[in-house]
Amino acid sequence: MAFPQPKPQPPQLPQHLLRTINCQQGAVRAVRFNVDGNYLLSCGSDKSLKLWSVGRGTLLKTYSGHGYEVLDADGSYDNSQLCSCSSDKTVILWDVATGQVTRKLRGHAGKVNCVQFNEEATVILSGSIDGTVRCWDTKSRRNEPIQVLDEARDSISSLKVSQHELLTGSVDGRVRRYDLRMGQLHVDLISSPITCVCFSQDGQCTLSSSLDSKVRLLDKSTGEMLGEYAGHKMKGYKLDCCLSSKDTHVLSCSEDGHVYCWDLVEGSLSLKLPVGKAVVQSLSFHPTETCLLTAMEGCVQVWGAQPEEAQDDTPVSQNG
Amino acid sequence: MAADSEEDFVSFGTPLEPLEEDEPLKKPVPLHEQTVKDEKGRYQRFHGAFTGGFSAGYFNTVGSKEGWTPSTFVSSRQQKAEKHHARPEDFMDEEDFGEHGIAPREITTSQEFSSSRRDPAAEKARAVGAQAALIPGDSLLEELIAPARSSVGVELLTRMGWKEGQGIGPRLKRKPRRQLPVTAGVCKTYSCALPPAGSEELEEDDEEFAPEDVTFAPKDVTPVDFSPRLGVQGLGYRGLDPCLALPGQDADRHVHLFRPQSETRSRLFGDRPGGSKRGGVAGQAFGVGALEDEDEDVYHRDSMSRYDTVLKDEEPGDGLYGWTAPQQYTRRADRSRDAAYLGKILDGFTLAQKPLEQKTVFPPPNLPRDYRPVHFFRPPVNVSRLCGVSPALAEALRSSRGHMVKEEAQQGGRHQLDSGQRGALLGEDALQGSGSEPGSVMDLLRPEDRQRLLNLRTATAQRPSQAPPPGPAPPLSGLQQEALAAWRGSSSSSSSSSSSQSFKPFENTPGKQVRYERYLSRLQQGDAGALEQSLDPAMTEWERGREREEFLRASILYRPSSSSLSTRFTRAQQPDAEDAGRDQQGDGQQAASGTFGKLTRETLEWHPDRLLCKRFNVPDPYPGSALVGLPKVKRDKFSVFDFLTVSEHQKATAPPKPLEEKKSRWDVSKETGRTQNQAGSEPTGPALDHCPSPPQGGPAEPHTAKEEEEEEEEERPSMDLFRAIFITSSEEQSSSSSEEDGDEDEEAKGDEEPVKLFGIASSPSSSRLAGPDLSSSVDFPSMPLALSSSSAQMPSREEEEEFGPKLPPPSAADATGGATASYQRSNRRSKEKKQKKKQQKHRKEKKKKKHRKHKAKQQKKSREEESSSSEDGEGVQPSTGDLLKRLKSIRTLNTW
C-alpha cells in the first residue's frame, strides 16, 4: 500500500538470433522444444529425427526408423521417450537414450501430421490426414488405438493436449476440443482450414491459425473470439503458431520469411522477426524462458531476448 | 405363459430326437442288441406277456423267489396257511404307487394345509358370525374345536339319522307347516301390506291344522352359492339369502350348535331368548319398545316359507326360490331401505348415508305476453361534455349507455392502458402545457429554469451515451441476447421495409409501435442496449418494465423470418454434404463476419473410452455407458480412408507379397549390393547431397535424359515400375546409411537396419493398394534437397498434395549454402563419394521425374541406362550395374 507496485517490465521478445543449426536432414518439418526447453527436436524430411542441445547447438542423437519424412515429434515429461509421426503413416515411440524404436504404431490411413504425448506420457495422440485422431496406449502392448476420434471431416493438421483436454485443428475449418472430464466435444467453426492450434499457458484460451492468414484467440469456454491477429501470410502451407511462455504475445510463422509477433491483448504487431527468405515452417517457444526456435528449410534458428556472448554470437552472424 | 405351462408339465421318457430331413435312415438295431434295462441298469429280459412281460425275472421267476407260487401256500401240514387278507396294494407295482400311478404314495399336503383349497367363503362367514355375535370373537371356541376333515360331528349326526341337506336340531312341528303351500298367506302378503298381527294370526290358525305327531327337520342353512352366474340378471344380483333377509323365524330355527347364545341353546336352558334376536341384521329390532320383552313378532317380515309353492318335504338344495326381496312393499321406503338393499349391494360398495341431493330445476321465467325480442339502445350520453362530473358518475353514465366501451373489451383491465389512455377513457382533459406527451413538472417551471434544466439534461445524456449504458443494460438477459442474435443478422437496408411489412404488434398504440420499431432498428444494428434506449424515459418505471418485457417477447416472437428460417433450413450446396452446406450458410457467415461465439460453437456429448480416461487420470464422465465417441452416429462422411483402412488391416494381417518379391530381388543382387557397399556410390542422406557436385558424368547424363524424353511414349508406366523403383530407392538409402556408419559416428544405425528396412519398405508397397495415396508417397523418397531444379519440382508436388495445407518446399540453394558452410569434412574420400552419389542422385531424380511426368518405355530406358553406365567411371560402375539389374528384373516382370 505504501509502496507502489514495481513497474512491470516491458515483455521481452526473442529478437536476437543466438545461433543457427544446420540440421542436415533435409527440410526441417518441425522443431520442438522438449519439456524443459534444454533440448530441441528437429524433424527432417530425410526420415530422421534429431535431438539437439539448445544451448550449444550440438547434435546429441539421431533417431532413424521412419520410412518417410518426419512431420512432428514430442518429448515425454520425463525426457525418457520421444514420439514422432511421419508420412509413412506410422507413429514411433522412441527410447531417448538408446535411440531404439520402442513401438511402431500403425493404423492411420494417411500421413500423420501431428503427434503429442499426454501429460504423463501414457497416451500418444496422433492426428492424421485421414481425419482421425488416434489415441495410442503406451502402457500396454496393444497395437490398436484406445480410441479413434473420427469427428473431423478432413485432415487433422494440428493437435494439442492439456491435462484433460484435447485440442485438434482440422482442415475442415473446425477447432475441436475434447473435454475428457466433462465428456463433451466443443466444436468451433473457423471457416478456414486450420493449420495450427494451441492452448494458452493458463488454459483458458485457444489459439488457432488458419489459411486465411489470420490467427485467432478464442475463449475456451464460450468460443468467443478474444483477439484476431493478421498481417502475416499463411495461404497455402501448414505453418505453426504459438503463444509466448507468459501468454503475452502471439507468434506465427509466415510464408514471407518472417515470424510475426503480436501483443496478445492489443493485437498490435510488436515484432516482425526476419528469419530468412523462404517459408518459416515451424516454430516453438521455450516453455519458461524467452527463447524461440524457428525452422526454415534445413536450418533451425534459436532466438533469444538478449544477444549472447561474443564467441557464440560471431558464428551466428556469419551464418545469418 | 407358455414357459410356465411348459414347466407345469412333467415329461416322461426320453423325447424322440428331432427328425432331420436329409439324415439317412438309421440302421435298424438288430434283435439281439435290443436290450431293456431297468432303473439300476440291469438287463431285463423280455418274456412273453404270459410269462411275465418285462421284469419277470427273479431269475425268470415272477419277481419273487417263489415265482408264481402263491405266497399263501404253506407246504406244511401242521401249519395251515393263514388267511391272507389281500389288499389292492398287494397287486400293485411301483409304477402304480408312483406319482402318476393309480395309487400314488406321495407325501402331499393335506387339505387343511393346502393354501388353495381353503374355502374363503366359509372363513368369511365365520368371521362375520363372530362379529355379529354378542361377544365378538365368539367363534374362538369353534376354532378351538375345529372339526377334522370328515368330522366326528358329521359322523355322529349321520348316525343319529341326520341327512345331508337337513337342518340340525330337534325336529320341529312348526316348520313343515310353513313349508306347506299357504296360498292365502301369499296372496295376502303380496296384495297389500298386512299388519303383522294378521299373519301371526294366520300362523296360529295354520298351526291348528297341523297333525300333532308329525315333526319335521329344521331347515338347513343355505350355503352361499358361488356357482358361476349363468343367468341374465344384472351384476351383483343374488337371490335372497334367507339367512340375512329373513332373520325372523328362520334365523331362530337356524341352529347354532356351538354358540352358547344361540336360541336353541337358551331355550334348552330355559333362558329367555330376548337378546338373541339382535344378533341378526341391523334394523331388525327397530321400533321395539325397551320394555317389550317379546319383540320378534311385532314387525314380522316375510318369511321364506310363505312363498314356498312347492309341495315337498324338503326344500330344494339351493333354497333360493328366485325371490328378490320385495320388502319395500311391506315397509316404508326410508325404513326398509337398508334391508331393501340387502344382498344387492355389490362387493366393495356401501350404502350411502345421505341420499343424493336432488337438483332443483327452476323453470324459465314466463315471458310477458307483449314481449318482443328486439333490443334498442338508449341515446348515448356524451360524458366528455360533462366536465365537472366525478369519475364514478361518468362510469355509471357510460355503463348506462347500453354498450360496452370497445377498448375495454379488447384490453383486459385498466393496467393494460397507460395513463394517457386512462385519462382519455375517463374523459379527462389533457393536462395543459404539454403537447402530445403527458405533462411534466417542466411545464410548470419558468422558461429560464426550464432552459437550465434542459441544458443539464443534455449534458448528462451525452455522457452515458459515450460510456456504457447505465443500469441493467450490460448484463443482457438470455431473452435479450436471443433477440439480439435473431435480429442482428437481418440487413439494415431491408429493415425499414421489412419492419413495415412485418407484423405490428402494437398497432393500436402508435406511440408504442414507434418505440418498438425504434427498438427493432437498433437491434438490427447489433446494439446491445437497444431495449433500454428505445424505451420512453418519460414513462414510469413500472410502465417501462412492462414495455420492456413486451418488446422483448414481441421481438423474439416476430423475429425476421430470414434468420429464423436460416437457423432451421439450409440450402444444400452439395447433394450429400448437408452439414457442410449449413456451415457455409449459417455459421460460416458468422465466422466470416468475425462474430465467434454461440453461433460458431457446437457442443456435443462425447464419450471418451474408459481406458483413455484412466490414462488421463480423469474419472469417466459417463460411468454407465459403454458408448464410445459421439452418441449420435453421424456416419455421413465417407472418405476414401474408410476404405483404405481396410486394406491397411489386410496388410497388417497378411505379410504382403511385394515384400517377398523385393526380398527375392534383393537376393539376386546380393553380390552387387556388396560391391556397391564397398564402393559406397549409392545416393545417401541428403546432407551429403548438399554439396555442389562438379558434374563428372553430368554431360553424358542430361543427354541421355533428353533422348529418353524424346522416346517416351504417352503411356503410363505400370505399377511394378513404381514399386520397383521406390523399393530399391529405400534399399539404397538404407544400404548407404549403413555404410555411413563407418564414416559418420553421429548417425547411430544399428545392425537391425535391414530388418527395419523391410518395415519401411512395406509402406510404399502398401500404398500400392491405396490407389490415390500412391502419388503422394511416390514423389519424395530421396529427392529432398538434392535438386537444383526445385522450381521444376514444385508444380508436381502441388498437384499431388491435394489434402489440406502443404508442407513448405525444401529450398535447395539456401540449404546447400548452409551445408557447405558448416559441413566441413577433412575426409576426402567421403567427399568424392558424395560427388559420385550426387551424380547418381541427379540421374535417378530425373528418371523419376520422367516417370512421374511422362510415361516411360521401360525396355528402351534400361538399354539407355546400360549404354550410359558403360560410359560411367569405375566408381559408379557397381551401383549402376545394380540398378540395371533391377531394371532388368522389372522388365522381366513386365514381360510376364
TrEMBL record, chain A:
The record's subcellular location field reads: Cytoplasm
Q: Which superkingdom heads the taxonomic lineage of this protein's source?
A: Eukaryota
| A Pfam entry, by short name | WD40
Q: Which Gene3D superfamilies match?
A: YVTN repeat-like/Quinoprotein amine dehydrogenase (2.130.10.10)
Record family assignment:
Belongs to the WD repeat MORG1 family.
- Tell me the PROSITE patterns matching this sequence: WD_REPEATS_1, WD_REPEATS_2, WD_REPEATS_REGION
Query: What is the source species?
Result: Xiphophorus maculatus
GO CC field: catalytic step 2 spliceosome; cytoplasm
Q: Is Metal-binding included in the keywords of this UniProt record? A: no
Q: Does the keyword Isomerase apply?
A: no
Q: Where are the transmembrane segments?
A: none
Which PANTHER family is this protein grouped with?
A: WD REPEAT DOMAIN-CONTAINING PROTEIN 83, WD40 REPEAT PROTEIN
Q: Which UniProt keywords apply?
A: Cytoplasm, Repeat, WD repeat
Single biological process term from Gene Ontology: mRNA splicing, via spliceosome
Q: What is this protein called in UniProt?
A: WD repeat domain-containing protein 83
InterPro entries (alphabetical): WD40/YVTN_repeat-like_dom_sf (IPR015943), WD40_PAC1 (IPR020472), WD40_repeat_CS (IPR019775), WD40_repeat_dom_sf (IPR036322), WD40_rpt (IPR001680), WD_repeat_MORG1 (IPR051980)
Recorded hits in SUPFAM superfamilies, A to Z, give: WD40 repeat-like
Query: Where does the UniProt entry say this protein principally localizes?
Result: cytoplasm
Q: Where do the WD repeats start and stop?
A: 21-62, 63-104, 105-146
